[in-house]
Give the backbone structure.
Amino acid sequence: MKQFHNFINGEFVATSKTFENRAPADNHVIGLVHEAGQAEVDAAVKAARAAMNGEWGKMSVVKRVELLNAVADEINNRFDEFLAAELADTGKPHSLASHIDIPRGAANFKIFADIIKNAPTESFQMTTPDGGTAISYGVRVPLGVVAVVCPWNLPLLLMTWKVGPALACGNAVIVKPSEETPATATLLGEVMNKVGIPKGVYNVVHGFGPNSAGEFLTKHPDVDGITFTGETRTGEAIMAAAAKGVRPVSFELGGKNAAVVFADADFDKAIAGVTRSVFENCGQVCLGTERVYVQRPIFDKFVKALKEKAEALKIGPSDMPGVGMGPLISAEHKEKVLSYYQKAKAEGANVVTGGGTPTMEGKYAEGHYVQPTIWTGLPETSPIIREEIFGPCCHIAPFDTEEEAIALANDTPYGLATSIWTTDISVATRMANAIHVGLCWINSWFLRDLRTPFGGSKGSGIGREGGVHSLEFYTDLRNVMIKI
């Protein structure tokens, strides 16, 4: 039986309390995860603090950059091992994990190594009241000990998106991966030791949220800041914990993202883009689309075309040739998604396609598969349109005017992302300015330049990460004034 241990101060640490890690594809037990208690969290925070006061805290930027590049290289050297771990934990298609999750997971270390190496700070010269001169300049120092609480949908990518800049800025981290996906965070501990990252710089504690590792970590008084990706309610709980001690937070939270398709859009590209944004990773993408608004002249044509795309998706495990959609992450999440499928039917939705579970054969009958699903006909007040489902589904509604589309897109407590499909650049720019989101794509989806700001508005988050914007959270900017 595979064992997933905590990683504390450069050592793998077992505990007496374990829980099962099950594969979404067929529900078999991958291994046992060792749950961290208060003692293990205390030890991890103590190790991180010692690293900040020791070799790591005194290390030059040049040396840190060298080590982070070595981390990226070692992930790539062990690409197949990381890929196998991610596929087992998530069940996502091989093509998706091999092209996005693992390469981006490694690249996050190199990208932020380059950014910290070249990040400037401001400098000013002024005349003092006595007629002399003074020079002031900015100095960036590490935030300190950072708690990194990670989701299960892109485990390695979203974890290194935070750990990469945190370490580049000179912080030490304690990672709390999702209980559903412990493998790659644990495996990264081996990489840290192999390349010579000092002990205590990177730590991993496994467990759950309330009364477990998540709560113990986020409430720990010696944690200097908390970064989290996940659902909004959990973010609210973490933010309340962080209020004690007035500790900074950086959150990317839930979304109920809209796609807006105008009649003049390149139809084939819009269909391809919306298909991907609704169904990729079985709809388990924070940036994914669950609300689609289509201008009335092409509404029926669009619904028909998206139905054909959904029904053409091959559902199955990651190693199945040609698979386009894998399972949901867990039995619990499958139950949640299916409850929305049932609710949509009860509310009188027109089920264009899907709405249930596919027939799977053999051991895969125990997997957490659901059908890609499209609805029409529900009012904007429906929970199907108001609440984040996080599954492979969307509701499509018609609109007539640009103003109506803006109102529909903005009618949500969330504000993470949107995509606009039109060939009219004036319409596109007006829409981008008017829709209250952190990320807006024009005629694309999930196209990312990692130097640009990333994060949500309203109930979808607080703060921005990416490029130099990550430095705003992972460092303290101090002012030094010299009177000459």
